[in-house]
Amino acid sequence: MDWTATYLLVAVACLAVVELWFIAVMIVTSRRYRALSGEDKETGPPPDPSSVSFEDLGMLAGGLRRWAEVALFRLYQEGHVEEDGLIALIAGSDEIRAEDRPHSARGAIVARLRDREPAHVMAVIEAAWQETDSAGLIRRASA
Taking a C-beta distance cutoff of 8 angstroms, is the pair 137, 103 a contact? Predict the structure, then answer.
């Protein structure tokens, strides 16, 4: 046997030992991480999708601006708002039900349009999310 073959066997044996050590450290580390982070705990059933409003889904998807856009679209879809270049309440829709919850986008939009002239879409949306308490809205959505 040549002396280079001996060095080659020693090198392969050392690499195998280092690789086994690395695998053992990774297994122990991943188990410890899961134990500390609580990934092994069961989280329970998923929430009921019908308990989240369209406006809340819009806020989660695109922030406060999308929240107001979705609320305005829902008012349009229900026939309470007309769009002819400008946004206005339809005559006779004074009984629009603003949501019972505080910080409602619908309520802010209806309040903006109720006693004023028709307005541009972006002005209505901006007024809606600026007139609400965004800190309270974010707290409610994250609860």
Answer: yes
Whether 53 and 86 have beta carbons less than 8 Å apart is answered as no
pTM: 0.56
Q: How many other CB atoms sit within 10 Å of the CB of residue 128?
A: 26
Q: Which residue has the tokens 């989280």?
A: 43
**Using one digit for the tens of pLDDT, what is the confidence trace for 48-75?**
777 777 887 888 888 888 888 888 888 8
> Could you tell me where the beta strands, DSSP code E, fall in 4-137?
81-83, 87-89
DSSP 3-state assignment of 119? strand
Counts of helices then strands in the chain (DSSP H, E): 5, 2
User: Angle formed by the axes of helices 54-77 and 134-142, to 10°?
Assistant: 120
